[in-house]
């Protein structure tokens, strides 16, 4: 079974392809960029994106939108995570967290899939906290400053941890269950 | 002469109404909200917004998009200024600026106007710098941390300064000149 993943982010694609391979699903990257809407809701963004992607490729396709939501920063950078990372970097996030006792944060992902008829969405969430400094070389994005709940290593220090606990993994797992149940 | 200003921001509306009154133009607020596109370009955002606004009101109407662009933060918060202010506040911006020698920044505004046929745009820019701390009670948004070039007071300490030098004033002035030349 082969389906398209519409994304321009190579890291995201590789991560998803590896995870879904284990579930018997082959992914093909559909390089796709368009004007995303502004919204604080990942689901709203993903639903808008899948409409645009399907309109172009006219094949079963999914998109994934994700973000890091930091409690003491009112959910910043949230749905604008990759944009904020390009602008202020991990240093900027750590600076904003200086002196904050509450370092709680969560990663969230929302997949939207259109098989030709309906759009279905799948969410995954990973609670945790922002580390005091960046640690680790694996992963990408905010992985080196995020420690999942109950753990001591950042996602970038332990890719095994990430592959087991991440928001993306959880959303992909729900997605693959749904795909496999329809076969 | 009366035209519509499509905005949901009361502060923006009041400021523009006052400025354009002096040029013989009466503004009426057209309360309008829609899903803005994501873009780092104010002009692209304004052009998209005016298309949406005109489609609804079918009358001569303008929109204005503006932002604060900080040099040492790669232009952050830029086109996402009001969103970022709600999330991390002025304190967040000042924290990000700690230890930065380069405090250069500029405000920029872009007006897009549609009279029924064409869309025309008008830009205004105000160079300056980020103050060390928030000062002043007037204005709104980032006014209390922005000092225009060659001055010592923030926009929030001197509304006269703001009304004379601001990006919004400059873009509105160009706009009113264009409107008055067509009468």
List keywords for this structure.
homodimer, globular, 7 strands, Maf protein, seven-stranded mixed beta sheet, alpha/beta, 183 residues
Written description of the protein model:
2 copies of one chain form a homodimer. With 183 residues, the first copy, chain A, is α/β, with parallel strands linked by helices. The first copy, chain A, has one domain: Maf protein (Alpha-Beta Complex), CATH 3.90.950. In chain A, 37% of the residues lie in helices and 26% in strands. Chain A has 5 helices and 7 strands. The first copy, chain A, has helices at 10-21, 42-57, 81-97, 159-165, 167-182; strands at 2-6, 26-30, 61-70, 77-78, 104-114, 119-130, 146-148. In chain A, helix 4 (159-165) crosses helix 5. The longest helix of chain A has 17 residues, at 81-97. The N and C termini of chain A lie close together (9 Å). The model of chain A has no long low-confidence stretch (mean pLDDT 94). At the A-B interface, strand 4 and helix 3 of A face strand 4 and helix 3 of B.
């Amino acid at each position: 079974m082969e389906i398209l993943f519409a994304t321009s982010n190579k890291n995201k694609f590789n991560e998803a392809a590896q995870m879904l391979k284990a579930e018997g699903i082959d992914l093909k990257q559909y390089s796709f960029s368009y004007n995303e809407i502004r919204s604080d809701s990942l689901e709203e963004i993903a639903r808008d994106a899948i409409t645009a992607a399907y309109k172009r490729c006219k094949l079963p396709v999914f998109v994934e939108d994700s973000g890091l939501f930091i409690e003491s920063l009112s959910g910043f950078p949230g749905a604008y995570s990759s944009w904020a990372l390009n602008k202020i970097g991990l240093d900027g996030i750590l600076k904003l967290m200086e002196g904050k006792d509450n370092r709680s944060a969560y990663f969230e992902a929302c997949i939207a899939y259109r098989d030709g008829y309906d759009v279905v969405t799948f969410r995954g969430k990973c609670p945790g906290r922002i580390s005091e400094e960046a640690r680790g070389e694996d992963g990408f994005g905010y992985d080196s400053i995020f420690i999942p709940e109950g753990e001591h290593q950042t996602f970038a220090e332990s890719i095994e941890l990430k592959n087991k606990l991440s928001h993306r993994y959880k959303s992909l797992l729900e997605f693959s269950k749904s795909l496999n149940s329809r076969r």
